[in-house]
Amino acid sequence: MPSAKTWKSLGQSQPWTGNPSLHGKRMLARHFPLNHRIFSRSTGSTIRHLSSQASSNVFKSKHNQEIVDLLLTYKEEEERSDEPNYYRAQAFAKAVYAVLKVDRPIRTGLDLREVQGVGPGIVTKINAHLLASDADLRDKGCATTLFLARVSLTGLLDPESYKLLMDHRTVSELDKIPGIGPVTAKKLAEAGCQCLEDLKSGRFVHLLKGKQGIKLKYAGHLECAIRRNEAEEVLHFCRESLGPEYDVNLVGEYRRGFVSLSEIRMMISHPDFVHIPLPHKPVQQPTASVAKKPRTTRKSKEGKTNLLHSDIVPLLLQRGLLADTLSVDTTSWKGVARLPGPVEVWGDRVDRISSIGKVDGDFRKISLHLVPQRSQGSSMIVLTGDDHFVQDICYRAQQRGMLFNEYGLWKWTVPSPISTPEMEPSSSSSLPAPSDPTTDTGYWSLINSTTESDIFQELEMPFVDPTKRNFSFISYRTKTTSKKKRSILP
Length: 490
Known about the structure:
It comes from Agrocybe pediades. This is DNA-directed DNA polymerase. Keywords: DNA replication, DNA synthesis, DNA-directed DNA polymerase, Nucleotidyltransferase, Transferase. Its cofactor is Mg(2+). InterPro entries: DNA-dir_DNA_pol_X (IPR002054), DNA_pol_B_palm_palm (IPR028207), DNA_pol_lamdba_lyase_dom_sf (IPR027421), DNA_Pol_thumb_sf (IPR037160), DNA_pol_X (IPR022312), HHH_MUS81 (IPR010996), Hlx-hairpin-Hlx_DNA-bd_motif (IPR003583), NT_sf (IPR043519). By secondary structure, the chain is α+β, with helices and mostly antiparallel strands. Among the domains are: 176-217, no CATH class; 218-490, 2-Layer Sandwich (Beta Polymerase, domain 2). The chain has 16 helices and 10 strands. The strands form 3 sheets. The chain has a 5-stranded mixed beta sheet with strand order 2-4-7-6-5, with helices on both faces. Strands 8-9-10 form a 3-stranded antiparallel beta sheet. A hairpin with a 2-residue loop joins strand 8 and strand 9.
C-alpha cells in the first residue's frame, strides 16, 4: 500500500486502516484535505496544485508505471486548467491509488472496469490514449513505445487488445446516439456498424426498434437545447394554423422560466372538448410518502376520437410543422417538429413539407396536450410542473380530504338531500364512481378548477409564480420522531 507521503503528494489523506466495521461511519470530509473542503465562489479560489515532489519516483508500480504516469498527467492538467474541477482531479488521484494496488499487468483500460476507484470515464480516457498512441506508431512505422512496451515486443497493440479497444470505442460512440442504448449499441458493433454514418446508410436498420429509427433520423437535432424564442415561434405558428377557437399556450420548462428547454410543451383547449374522466377511487388518507399523481378511469371512446387526433395533429402535419410521431396517448401527442422560424421565413407549405422529407432545417422535440376548458387551471399546474411541485399540491389536497389531478380538484360526496353550493358537478360527475371496496355509495364532485388561482384558493395557499415552481432540487425528509409528512411549501 502507498505510504503517507504518496497520499500527501496526491492531495489526499492517507486511508484509514483501523476497524473495518467503523470505517464506513467516518465523515466523508475527513478523506479530503482541509484546504479542499470549502470553496469561495466570490473569490474564485482554485484547488491546490500537485506538489512538485509528486514525480514518478514517489508512485512506483511494478507492472503499470506507464498508466500511473498517464493518470498523474491528467490530474496535473485538470488542476492547471483555467477552470479546474476539484472532483475530477480527485477522481484521477483515486484512480492512481487504485492502479498502484493492482498486482498484475494491465493491458487496456478495460482491465480496470472492475477495479474499485476507477470510473468508466477514466477507462475511456485510457483506451483513447492507447488507440491514439497505437495509430501514431503505425503511421510513423515505429517499433517501440514507452507506454505499451509491456504489451508486445513491437510496442504496438497486440491484435486481441486492439480489437477489444476498437469494440469498446465503437459501443461507446454508438451509445451516445439518441435512442441507442448500450444493448443495441453492442449488437450494432457486433454486426459491423462503426459510426453514425454507418447507421444512416440503412444497412443496420433491421437492428433498430420502434422510436430508435426516428431518433436516429434526427440525430444531431433532438439533443440540442431549444431557445425560448424558438418555442415562441412554434407557438405563433400553431395559433395561426389552428385558428382563434383554439386556446394554445406554452407550458413546462418555458413557463417555469428556463433559458433553454429540452422540449416544446404546449397545452391546447377547445370549446368542443369537454370530456372530464372521473378519478378512479375515493380519496385515501395521506401517508408519509410523497403523493403520486392520482389515476383516472380507463380511456373512453370519446377520448380516443378527440380533436387532438382527428383535427389538430393532422392539420399541423399538413401545414409542415410536425415531422414524425414518437408516442401517442388519449389526450397527448409527442413527436418531432421542424422549427418554422420567424413569420418572414415561413415560406410556402409545400416547401416546408419538402424540407421535412429531406431533413432540411432544425428539428426539435414537441408535445401537444389537449385539455378540457373547465380543467385548464389544474392542467396548467400539472403541465407546468415540476413533478415535485405537483406532488406537493396532491399532498395538500389529500390533507383536506380532496384529490387533485390534471382534470381538477375533486371531493368525494355522499348523496344527501341538501346540495353543497360550492360543488360544481362535472360533465361526468353525476355518474357514480367505479365500485370500490372502501365505499358503497357516493360520487366525485368537481370543485371549480378553471384557473390556477381557483385551486390555490381552495387549498388555502398563496399563488405560486410559475418561475418559483422548480422544486426538483429539494430532498424530502421526515423526522424520525414524527411520522407526519411535512409539505414543501409554507
